[in-house]
Amino acid sequence: MVNTVLEISGLNKWFGPVHALKNIQFSLERGEVCALLGDNGAGKSTLIKLISGVEAVDQGHMTINGQAVDIKHYGVKSARQLGIETVYQSGSLGEQQSVWRNLFLGRHLRNKLGFIDQKAERQQATALLSKLDFRGVGANIETPVNLLSGGERQGLAIGRAMLFDAKVVILDEPTTALSLGEVDKVLHFIETLREQDRACLLITHNMNDAFRVADRFVVMDRGQIVAQHHKSDMTQEALHKALLDAVGRGA
To answer: Model pTM?
Structure first.
């Protein structure tokens, strides 16, 4: 079994004359939660778009689950086939559709005749929500998504990634604008990813959230990785100071 599920070397990205990402060296291990930290404009969003296939890589090498990626033909479809799933702030959910339909949105199970296998989808949806410990209205697979809380919506989007056997789950600011109780739900879902031996790349501005769930912290500034720290090596206060120092050196 390959322990390094994502490895990037010499990755560069330009937008016209702007050198957006500069010689990125990065890896992610199975069962690891890595927090990607940095100010707005540091390059975090660009990096996750390249990993998830939304943006094209201009230069560099990427290996996923031990398989070298052809960057010239790498896109969202191939990223998903290799086990990369991305959950954005919006969750990309159908508001009027039920929980179970959202789980299979765009990737429905089909029977031998080619029709959507609703029975199989409902069964898998029920089993997944039980594993994620959904409660209340969110535990009913027939509930429309617009009735779910913010934390439940994020949990549903994370669950969809788990359902399609994601090896790497990228979370883009999953706790933004949520109440403390809802934040706790989302962080619990992230901890569930680790327990299932999946890798998670977490983009967040919230240091409390990052320190609770992450095993490693990678700091970006002006398109470069400027520092890396392991949780076992520091306190939350030390991490905050290290983040300020790293970004300050690049100012």
So the answer is: 0.87
State how far the Cα of 157 lies from the Cα of 91, in Å rounded to an integer: 6
Domains of the chain with CATH codes: 4-95+167-249 (3.40.50.300)
Kindly give, in sequence order, each residue whose CB lies less than 8 Å from that of residue 225, ignoring residues fewer than 6 positions away.
Answer: 24, 25, 26, 218, 219
pLDDT tens digits along 34-90? 999 998 889 999 999 999 999 999 999 999 999 999 999 999 999 999 999 998 865
Q: How far apart are CA 183 and CA 203, in angstroms?
A: 14
Query: Residue 16, class by beta-carbon neighbours within 10 Å (0-12 exposed, 13-18 middle, 19+ buried)?
Result: exposed
Other C-beta atoms within 10 Å of 25: how many? 13
Give the pLDDT confidence of 229-249 residue by residue, as tens digits: 999 999 999 988 888 887 766
H-assigned helices in 132-206: 150-163, 180-195
In terms of Cα–Cα distance, which of 22, 25, 76 is closest to 49?
76
